[in-house]
Write a structure and sequence with these properties.
It contains 25 helices and 19 strands. By secondary structure, it is an alpha/beta fold. Helix 3 (about 70-85) packs across helix 4 (about 95-110) and helix 24 (about 630-640) packs across helix 25. Bound molecules: iron/sulfur cluster. Iron/sulfur cluster (SF4) binds near residues 129, 130 and 131.
């Protein structure tokens, strides 16, 4: 339990920060610091530095302008230090991550008097694998590449030139192996060949480990008191059991900024999927190449004994998989083929008995392949560690990542089929299962997906329960005045501290919310679109900054097309340029005294900072109710109805309310100097 000394440290660092920055205390900021200090202050540790008791989670909705980053850093850093724990700050977006690392943390360190080390940590996939790069550039190993991904083409001369440039820059210390510090955007296909994951990496046994960008970054973690990461990286670490990349949850106080994204990110991380046709093709290629691949390892008798049943295991999986496609084909008739992602969702997640039966066999078949590859990898690792290898180390190092990537693929298939093998609905932990039709070139494939509907159980089990402490914050965590929606989705415990701290902005004075009289029903798509085309020139002042948010891309394009030419010239539309560039062009136009109108989809508003004259009107074309064909949302609605609830009131309305708030604060948040802001809604 934190003593008076820590409370004193928090108070004095805040006072010092305000004085040094010549800022006035903000009411909401003070409330937020107090709430976090109270929650983290209640944490007790046993003799082994493990938390005892609960109440270690603090959930704070902090309105725009609260100064929440400063609040959570000043409250958490001294508390974590007193507990002997690390702080992991996690964001959903790169923009916020950069702001925290390059602006807020240096600011807090310089002005608060707190002494701490901090740094940014990224996932392994953002770093170069030097071992892979070396093999690609070395003659004779290129032919292994296509075995990683059955759909990949060979290495083009341009890619090879790129890889050589990478190697040259590394050798001259002009590049550190971080994808984000490469001067241009690197194409994903070229990059994926030279990066790796935990399965393919030989770790400390790798002959390149001393120069390895990922391990250099990881080693620097030990020095850090405060690590800035993102939700995906934290969730990937938790999925590996926690402590694989980041400090272990029991040694960590997490701060989740933009916490409203955490549940959806968690659902993605813990879902399973597999494509039937491409997996069958991969099994066939692997079967054909298996003997030749292992040839260099023949003198390692034990490895060869482990590997012996592989061909029959691959054959068994492929023959079962070939029986799946005819079972899925009839569902094509029930899919909306005009949709970009034609899908069929199994009601209540329950798949037909015949598919369940085959899924059971496939679970066993892929588990056999997985266990065999896992054993091979672990034995290969032992050889890499030993001084006397029965096989050339270079050959083993070349084959190891391939075995690792196949092992991961077999594991993913095993998990998917396991979920399909027993699909009896569980009213407590519902699961959505569906088929997506994938058509490319002359191939028709079926992707099977199994996804939890709620992240609450997963987050509770992997995060909230094991962690030492956590803060979850965002400007939009409540819906319709309660935290119920967030608690349902994120699974934060009932005994957590829940606090709403007010924004310093006077929304009531700064904004006007108007619903046009005679608004057209949004379900009458054509009439609704025409009404927006008619209303926009009437409602807007062409010299001002405006943001128009649409619920569908089709309608956004149609409205743009339908407006008079002089209006179209002022429109900057999402999708035509990157978001950052659109916002810059918008600000430039307004700074030059010209009017500018941003067109975007509902999510465009999130995180957008357009103070003062940059945005004086927001037009919301339609209240953004969730897309009804999203399979997870549809399954959640079905589950709520099955529990006797009302999906519209419990999901659709709160979700729309959150989106409405996110859109409206763009316009009404910061203090206005010129005109009153106006937010128009066409129903
Ligand atoms: S340690 Fe792992 S990531 Fe680093 S170069 Fe070696 S195999 Fe690649």
């Amino acid at each position: 339990m934190l003593g008076d000394a820590v409370k004193q440290a928090i108070q004095s660092s805040y006072s010092r920060f305000l004085k040094s920055r010549q800022l006035n205390p903000r009411y909401g900021q003070k409330l937020m610091i107090a709430a976090i200090a109270r929650a983290l202050g209640g944490i007790r540790l046993d003799d082994e530095a493990k938390r005892t008791g609960d109440g270690h989670i603090c959930v704070v909705e902090a309105g725009t302008g609260t100064g929440k980053t400063v609040a959570y850093l000043l409250a958490t850093l001294p508390a974590a230090k007193a507990l002997g724990k690390k702080v992991v700050v996690s964001t959903a977006t790169v923009a916020l991550q950069e702001q925290i690392v390059f602006k807020d943390l240096p600011d807090v360190k310089q002005h608060s008097g707190l002494d701490f080390h901090y740094g940014l940590v990224k996932g392994r996939g953002r770093y170069l694998c030097l071992s892979k790069l070396d093999r690609i550039l070395a003659d004779g190993h290129e032919e292994l590449l296509f075995l990683y991904d059955d759909a990949s083409a060979g290495v083009s001369p341009q890619d090879k030139a790129l890889y050589q440039t990478m190697m040259d820059k590394l050798a001259e210390s002009r590049w550190d192996g971080d994808r984000d510090s490469w001067p241009e955007e690197l194409p994903q296909a070229a990059w994926s060949r030279v990066t790796t994951d935990h399965r393919q990496c030989t770790g400390r046994r790798c002959s390149f480990v001393r120069q390895c960008a990922f391990f250099k970054a990881r080693d620097s973690l030990d020095e850090m008191d405060c690590i800035v990461a993102n939700h995906d990286l934290v969730l990937a670490d938790l999925a590996l059991g926690g402590g694989a990349i980041l400090p272990a949850p029991q040694d960590t106080i997490y701060i989740f900024d933009e916490a409203h994204h955490l549940p959806d990110k968690a659902i993605n991380h813990f879902s399973a999927h597999s494509r039937v046709v491409s997996t069958s093709r991969w099994l066939g290629i692997t079967e054909g190449q298996w003997k030749g691949l292992l040839e260099p390892l023949e003198s390692a008798v034990y490895l060869m004994q482990i590997a012996a049943p592989m061909e029959s295991a691959l054959k068994a999986a492929r023959s079962q998989l070939d029986g799946v496609q005819p079972l899925l084909a009839p569902y094509m008739a029930e899919m909306d083929r005009t949709s970009p992602t034609p899908r069929y969702r199994f009601p209540q997640g329950q798949v037909p008995a015949e598919l369940e039966r085959i899924a059971g066999h496939l679970q066993v078949a892929f588990d056999d392949i997985y266990r065999l590859l896992d054993k091979l990898c672990s034995e290969a690792n032992k050889i890499l560690e030993s001084e006397h290898s029965p096989v050339p180390m270079a050959d083993l190092e070349a084959i190891y990542p391939l075995l690792g990537s196949w092992c991961a693929r077999a594991e993913a298939n095993r998990d998917l089929w396991k979920s399909f093998a027993d699909s009896t609905p569980d009213p407590k932990w519902p699961v959505a299962r569906w088929i997506t039709l994938i058509e490319y070139e002359d191939t028709v494939d079926f992707e099977l997906v199994s996804s939890p509907i709620l992240a609450s159980h997963t987050l509770s089990q992997h995060l909230w329960e094991p962690c030492c402490g956590a803060v979850a914050t965002s400007a939009t965590l409540t819906a319709l005045g309660t935290f119920d929606r967030f608690r349902l989705r994120a699974g934060t415990p009932g005994d957590a501290t829940y606090e709403v701290v007010p924004s310093p902005f006077d929304f009531a004075q700064n904004g006007i919310l108007r619903v046009p009289k005679g608004a057209v029903d949004g379900n009458q798509v054509e009439a609704h679109t025409q009404s927006i085309i008619r209303l926009l020139p009437e409602l807007l002042d062409p010299r001002q900054g405006t943001l128009v948010l649409f619920a569908s891309r089709r309608q956004m394009l149609d409205v743009n097309e339908g407006l008079p030419a002089e209006w179209r010239e002022r429109i900057l539309m999402q999708g035509n340029e990157s978001k950052q560039l659109l916002l810059k062009l918008h600000r430039d136009r307004l700074d030059a005294g010209q009017g500018s109108v941003l067109f975007g989809l509902a999510s465009f508003a999130e995180g957008v900072d357009l103070p003062g004259h940059y945005c004086e009107h927001v037009v919301i074309a339609k209240i953004p109710f969730a897309v009804p064909d999203d399979p997870v949302e549809a399954a959640m609605a079905e589950w709520i109805e099955a529990q006797g609830g009302n999906a519209f009131m419990q999901i659709a309305v709160p979700d729309a309310a959150v989106k409405l708030v996110q859109a409206a604060v763009v316009c009404c948040g910061p203090k206005r100097t010129k005109a009153w802001s106006q937010c128009w809604i066409a129903a």
